[in-house]
Amino acid sequence: MKSSHSVLVAAVVGAAGLVLSERQNRRRLALQAAEMHQTWTAELATDPELRALWAPPGGELPDEVHKNLLHANRLVSFLAAKFRAGLLDRHSLRVQAQWLMEREIARTYWRTFVGFREDEAIDRTDRTFNAILSAEYASAVGKDPVAA
User: Which terminus, N or C, of the chain has the lesser number of Cβ atoms within 10 Å?
Assistant: First the structure.
């Protein structure tokens, strides 16, 4: 009986190791994707011709506003990657989101793209992130009626 018990324990430990390895691999892949996104967004923000090609559809957006929204996107995406990787917990994300939403460009970004971010959310982590940023946006707008 001890032998089968040892085999069972070894199998459980091995399975737990595989689960942890898979979780670590997903975090690593998420951070690599975030790094590529940061590079791409930085390139868009600094290249007016490229920015014109990728302007949001459905309206005229002044180039300077588009560039600033790209910078806001970089920061929001950076926070999302840190939250997904476990480098921010809910409390620390709220602190960062509150600071972010004190800035008009961040509120403009969130008001403009929150629907897209909600549509592209793939799991509970993304939905939690969006809910926290939306709550801080609502709080910031509530404090500053001009911000709405």
Answer: N
